[in-house]
C-alpha cells in the first residue's frame, strides 16, 4: 500500500510518502525477482489469481497482469494524489506493471460542485484518472469525502459508498466494483453495506499477509513508507518476518479497533436515547 510518491511531501503526507528514487528501486526489485503485479480486483476469496488479466474498472491491463508461473503481487495507491501521475505512473509504465489507484472522488482537483472533504496534498484531475485507466491502471473507489466510514450513520454511509462509485463509473464509462476503506477502517456493518452498494472486493490495511481465506471485502495490505529500507522492503514482499516488521502497527490497530467500536456504540445509543425517552401516547410529558 502506497499513498504519495514524492520527494516533497506535505507535513500531512510525510509519514506515508515514499521518495521517487526509493519507489523506482522497489519496482526494479519486483521486476528482478520475477514478481508480476496484478490488479486488486484479481483477488477473491481464494487469493490472487496469477492468470487474471481483467480488471473491474475497465482498464485493459493488457500486458500488465501476471501469467502462469509468475509471482503475483498487488500494488495499490490510496487517495489519488497528483504525484501518482507525475512520479509513479512512469515507473509502472517502464516495467509494464499493473496497479490499482483508489480515488477519493470529492478530493479530485477539478471535482467542482462535487468537491468534498479536505485533501492533504495536490490531487489528480479527472483527465489524469482517465489517462491512468487508459494506461492499464485499475481505478477503484476510496469513498467520496474520505470520512471514517465505520463512524457514519447508515444513510451517510450509503451515500459515501454509492456516490464515489457512481461518479467514477459515469466519468470512466466502465464498472467499478472494488474499493479501499479510508484510514483502513471498516466493520461488519460497513462491509455488509459495501457489498450492497455493488462492491465485490475491498481492502483495509491491517499490515499482514493476505491469506487465501481472507474476506474479499476486508483484504489486508502491507504499508510502504519513506522509512522502509530496501532490505525491509525485500523481506516484506518475500513474506518474511511480517509479524515482527509490523508488530507496532498490529498492536495499535487492535487497540484502536476496540476504541472505535465503543465510540460508535456510544454515538448510536445517544442517537436513540431521545426517541426512547419521548413520552408515549397517553403519557404526560
UniProtKB/TrEMBL annotation:
Domain NodB homology: 71-285
Biased composition (Gly residues): 60-69
UniProt GO BP: carbohydrate metabolic process
Chain segments annotated as transmembrane: none
Stretch list, region Disordered: 48-70
A Pfam family per the record: Polysacc_deac_1
Sequence ranges of Low complexity compositional bias: 48-59
Cited InterPro entries: Glyco_hydro/deAcase_b/a-brl, NODB_dom, Polysacch_Deacetylase
This protein's record includes keyword Signal: yes
Keywords: Signal
PROSITE patterns: NODB
UniProt-recorded Gene Ontology molecular function terms: hydrolase activity, acting on carbon-nitrogen (but not peptide) bonds
CDD domains: CE4_NodB_like_5s_6s
UniProt cross-references to PANTHER family, sorted A to Z: POLY-BETA-1,6-N-ACETYL-D-GLUCOSAMINE N-DEACETYLASE, PTHR34216
Name recorded for this polypeptide: Polysaccharide deacetylase family protein
Organism: Actinomadura logoneensis
Taxonomic lineage of the native organism: Bacteria, Bacillati, Actinomycetota, Actinomycetes, Streptosporangiales
